[in-house]
Design brief:
The chain has 684 residues and is of the alpha/beta class. 40% of the residues lie in helices and 20% in strands. The chain has 26 helices and 27 strands. A 7-stranded mixed beta sheet has the order 5-4-3-2-1-6-7. A 7-stranded mixed beta sheet has the order 10-18-25-22-19-21-20, with helices on both faces. A hairpin with a 4-residue loop joins strand 8 and strand 9 (131-132). Helix 5 (134-147) packs across helix 6 (153-166), helix 14 (356-376) packs parallel to helix 21 and helix 21 crosses helix 23 (622-632). The longest helix has 21 residues, at 356-376. The chain is elongated, with a radius of gyration of 35 Å. The N and C termini lie far apart (72 Å).
């Protein structure tokens, strides 16, 4: 024992129900533990029973061994959590042997487990009635998390980092109960940044008097992104890829050159968007802004099966359309007239698995149409292409692939706070209600109430959340009729609604000037959002003409998902999206997509189909696709068969169409054919 005593650096004493727990430490490691009981003598308190702890057993030792141990220690420390009476008793006992002890603040949890953990103002974590060390606080947090579902690594790391930062266990656990503490929920802030761009005076533009006279009373100068476009050859007819955040004015880039070319007799304007709701709004905007100068029509995908020409005038000066609507016109041989300008809005759709290859094919087919038209009309001169996007991970590469000048404007007009908090699906509407109320009750320096867009993953959930919000709100999704959607848009614009609850599918859609975006879900249907989609959606928070700053709240369900096919949980996805880099926009082709686009290109271009395939953004295995089309009997040479034409005009995936045809030929019951298609989808 004397050898052990000489090696002790710190002797730590902590009060227990049985007396005092004694811990001997050297080089930061525990050497042994013992239990000491004191007895009263005529000379004062002295060591009584002394028990050495070995595992779960205790071995009696001579009390003199404790005295020898104490004399050999470099320092003696008493836990400050020890009662004042007990501290005085220990000090008096030690003084009887000319030994001194200092009371130190320690972690009681550690002390009860026989560990010596001094804490100070920099390391102590408030655990309610006492302060504990960071290690014990982290274990307590992990214990709390285990009751609420297992958080995966990134989410747990986030909470543990916050715990060490604020040193308050209760504040952190309150985040798991849906409490909104902005100082804790705040993940980061994207600062406002202003690029120094030499703006172009509107009166210096050499536009047709019709559009020039329309713009001059409204603006003295073009906005920066519009000025950059003009400086990069917009009005000289150069093709452009314009990448700029929401609400920076990039849409006018396409409108300005398109209307100018219409009025100068250089072909009509084709303005293409991915969604019917967005096409409806854009059609209405064009009618309102330019109806005195041009006539406007709309062509959306809803009319592609029942092609009755409803509302669509192919001879109009301006055609607003969905990608599918215009592609259907091309696949069915409709005459769209001389096209002078094509604006592709939301061009990052090229990367989407379902729609990307169709947009890629549409661009190639439409370019072919315009080039063939230009050959017959030399005075028309072909079309100018303007591609618009708020979010592109590889803008330079994409501009090169599209053979367009890159106009990139990275300004963020207002700062954007991004917050993360944790809640299960049942708690989320209550949190959303608090967020909506808090935001609407604030008024910006521009005099506008804060309004919220809540993104969720289903139409049913839109209605469910909207019903639970106390302030005036409305669901908004593609399942509502046109009149109701327009009513919601008007009410939001006039600040009659505190919030709209919409599906993630409409993230790229209608223009709601919101100050706050709340993610009720990080899924679109049963698929997790991509980084690009996430940024597209959160970018709708904060407008420079309305708000002082934007706010984004991501509500995360620990260990949550929306379908058993989803590999990650919502907390994993949240931090992947918040920390992830924007995906590159690339179109990838599997066999089905390659066959579908090759069939559409044959339908539109005949023998030129290989040329159409070669100019597409993605790599299309043309020979393999042609072989499959011949095998399926969808083509005869470089012409679609009757069956192939039906398939391409109805946008059917060729491999699924083949299974349908094969089932019909084998006289299978329709239910069996549907079952085969479902199984085919699962195999994919």
């Amino acid at each position: 024992m004397s050898k052990q005593a000489q090696q002790v650096e710190t002797l730590f004493c902590h009060e227990t129900d049985r007396g005092y727990l004694v811990v001997a430490r050297r080089n930061g490691q525990r050497q042994f533990r013992a239990v000491l009981e004191l007895k009263e003598t005529s000379a004062g308190p002295r060591p009584g029973r002394y028990l050495l702890k070995e595992g779960s057993s205790e071995k009696p030792r001579s009390p003199d061994e404790f005295v020898e141990l104490a004399r050999g220690a470099n320092r003696i420390r008493i836990s400050q959590q020890t009662s004042p009476e007990a501290r005085e008793e220990l000090k008096e006992m030690l003084a009887g042997y000319q030994l001194d002890a200092k009371a130190v603040r320690t972690c009681r949890y550690c002390a009860n487990s026989g560990r010596y953990s001094p804490i100070n103002g920099e390391t102590a974590v408030d655990a309610g009635e006492e302060y504990i060390c960071p290690d014990c606080a982290t274990k307590e947090l992990e214990r709390e998390l285990s009751f609420r579902g297992d958080l995966t690594g990134a989410a747990q790391d986030r909470l543990e980092d916050l715990l060490l930062e604020v040193q308050d266990l209760e504040r952190i656990t309150n985040l798991l109960k849906g409490r909104l503490d902005p100082d804790l929920t705040k993940f980061d802030e994207i600062s406002a940044n202003v690029e120094d761009v030499e703006t172009v005076p509107v009166d210096s533009l050499d536009l047709h008097p019709g559009i020039q006279n329309l713009l001059e009373p409204r603006f003295d100068e073009l906005l920066p992104v519009q000025s950059l476009a003009v400086q990069n050859g917009l009005l000289d007819g150069d093709d452009q890829l314009v990448v700029s955040a929401t609400a920076t004015g990039k849409t006018l880039v396409g409108e300005m050159t398109g209307i100018d070319r219409v009025l100068n007799g250089r072909g009509k304007l084709l303005f293409l968007v991915p969604l019917v709701a967005l096409a409806n709004q854009k059609h209405e905007d064009f009618e309102e802004e330019y109806s005195d100068l041009v006539n406007v029509t709309i062509r959306v995908g809803a009319s592609r099966v029942r092609d009755d020409g409803n509302r669509f005038d192919p001879n109009a000066d301006v055609i607003v359309g969905t990608y599918e609507g215009i592609d259907h016109a091309l696949r069915t041989g409709r005459d769209l007239g001389d096209i002078g300008t094509v604006v592709i809005d939301e061009v990052h759709t090229l990367q989407e698995q379902e729609r990307g290859h169709r947009l890629d094919g549409l661009i190639s087919r439409l370019k072919y149409y315009c080039e063939e038209r230009a050959k017959r009309r030399t005075e028309y001169g072909g079309a100018q292409w303007v591609y618009l996007s708020a979010t592109v991970g590889n803008p330079r590469d994409l501009a090169g692939a599209l053979e367009a000048n890159l106009v990139e404007f990275e300004e963020r007009p207002v700062a954007l706070e991004r917050h993360v908090t944790f809640a299960d699906g049942r708690e989320k509407p209550n949190i959303e209600n608090k967020l909506v109320k808090r935001e609407f009750d604030r008024e910006s320096s521009k005099g506008y109430h804060g309004q919220t867009i809540i993104f969720t993953n289903s139409r049913r959930r839109c209605h469910e959340i909207s019903r639970k919000l106390e302030y005036n709100s409305a669901p908004y999704h593609a399942g509502l009729d046109y009149g109701r959607r327009k009513q919601v848009e008007r009410m939001f614009a006039e600040q009659e609604l505190a919030a709209v609850v919409t599906t993630a599918a409409l993230a790229a859609g209608v223009d709601f000037p919101a100050s706050q975006v709340v993610f009720d879900s990080l899924a679109m249907g049963i698929e997790w959002l991509s980084v690009q989609e996430f940024h597209q959606m959160l970018g709708r928070a904060g407008r420079p003409d309305y708000h002082d700053r934007g706010k984004v709240y991501v509500l995360v369900e620990p260990d949550g998902s929306y379908h058993n096919s989803m590999e990650m949980s919502e907390d994993e996805v949240a931090f992947k999206l918040l920390k992830g880099e924007m995906e590159d926009v690339r179109t990838r082709y599997d066999e089905s997509a390659a066959v579908e686009e090759t069939l559409a290109n044959i339908t539109v271009g005949g023998k030129a189909a290989k040329r159409l395939n070669d100019r597409m953004i993605g790599d299309v295995p043309t020979k393999h696709a042609l072989g499959k089309l011949l095998e399926y009997e969808f083509i005869d040479g470089f012409s679609p068969t009757r069956l192939g034409r039906v398939i391409t005009t109805h946008f059917l995936a060729p491999d699924e169409a083949f299974k349908m045809v094969d089932g019909i030929r084998k006289e299978k019951h329709p239910y069996h054919i549907v079952a085969d298609l479902e199984l085919h989808g699962e195999d994919e």
